Amino acid sequence: MENKTYQHRIATRMLRFTDRDGNPLSNAAVEYRLANHEFLFGSGAFDSLPATAQGNHGHIDFYQDQINPDQRFYQDRMEKWLKVFNYGTIPFYWRGFEPREGEPLTESRMSAARFLKERNVRVKGHPLCWHSVCADWLMEYDNATILKKQIDRIHREVSVFRGVIDMWDVINEVVIMPVYNRYDNAITRICKEYGQIPLVKTVFEAAKEANPDAVLLINDFNLSEKYRELIADLLDAGVPISAIGLQTHQHQGYMGRERLEEVLERYSCFGLPLHFTENTLISGDIMPKEIVDLNDYQVEQWPSTPEGEERQCREWKEMYQILFGHPLVEAVTGWDFADGAWLHAPSGVIREDNTIKPAYLELQRLIHKEWTSSGVLHTDANGMAQLQGYRGAYVLSRAAEHADYTLKKDEDLSIQTIQLN
Fold it and tell me: What is the pLDDT of residue 1?
């Protein structure tokens, strides 16, 4: 904790320890251990669906051809996942979530989300509105009806999952949405008709109505001035954006410190939390630079290599250090936990056969060894001791007695009482 780079992640609090009768625990030793970071160290948690499925968990769109019939394979994968991360994104792509109108696969997502939440993982749903992998059956309706069904879909999902999923990518990739021309789709149609700002405002307000306490994100891969200007206009219009989502799918090579710091500076101007929502770093051959749309790079095999894995490990380490060191960044999500997902890329921190890569071990080391807090507090004659550490959920223990305590940002400095016999 002596590294000043991360001082903004650390809090200090005076605690008073007592027995169950309220008597001070004088001159006692109390062990403390950070059990779960406040910071959201995340990864795509799509594999939680097949790991928890009791039946049809639905088409997962980009990843369907990767499904292994052995559920134990995904349970093993998720056991590895849980040893590193405390934050997971699960898919709500409309086409896969509701392949037939009126028949959403709610239970499969609920099972996956509850599985994660029961293990102290914060869950985010992705996305509620997006022009890509949108429900095909919407195309038979006129634009006014499409918009109504989009609003109804948001009300339904955000309400049903309230208390289990309280964070959503509300709308995805708005910068390109009105000019998207790879194929006709219902959401681009209504974006063209109603405009970007009115559409974004409408879908955010729908999500806010369904869960006023939810964390609501806008999310985009376009990190240029266009996105910054759009966000500025949306905030001026009163859109209730909780956090700004920034994608960095780096299939064509690591963006590097200078570029990453430029992005941080560009989006820090709003003072809103920054979530790096979708991040990929490749451990094989780099995608050719001339490819404009990453989806145009279609290969049958894209193997991970020993050299690529060492490179990926170095890049993830630097990127994590930069982002964890920035005071406005609250979350970082590696998009693919395992290789072979989107575009068959070697973009995971484990291989397709579930064996771990150097990047997995490095992230595990950073999160659970370097950026952690544990030790022994020694109380004074009045049972007082000062806890200092990375913000998050702690376990405080003395002999067989345990107590949970959450160390938060230094706002309320009143002395907290902890009961331990």
Answer: 46
Residue 413 CA to residue 406 CA, distance in Å, equals: 13
Instruction: Give the chain's residues under pLDDT 50.
Output: 1, 62, 64
* Residue 331, φ and ψ in degrees, nearest 5: -155, 145
What does the pLDDT read at residue 54?
75
**Packed helices 225-236 and 256-268: angle between N→C axes, nearest 10 degrees:** 20
Write the burial class of residue 306 (CB in 10 Å: 0-12 exposed, 13-18 middle, 19+ buried).
exposed
Q: What single-letter DSSP state applies at residue 342?
A: G
Q: Which helix (H) or strand (E) holds 364?
A: helix 358-365
Task: Provide the pLDDT for residue 61.
Answer: 52
> Quick check: helix, strand or coil at residue 39?
coil
Distance, C-alpha 366 to centroid of its chain? 18
Phi-psi label, residue 273: left if phi above 0, alpha if psi -120 to 50, beta otherwise: beta
In whole angstroms, give the CA distance from residue 377 to residue 387. Answer: 7
| Tens of pLDDT, residues 242-275 | 999 999 999 999 999 999 999 999 999 999 999 9
Residue where the block lists tokens 């989107």: 342
CA-to-CA dists, residue 126 to 57, 115, 123, 171, 360, angstroms: 16, 17, 10, 9, 24
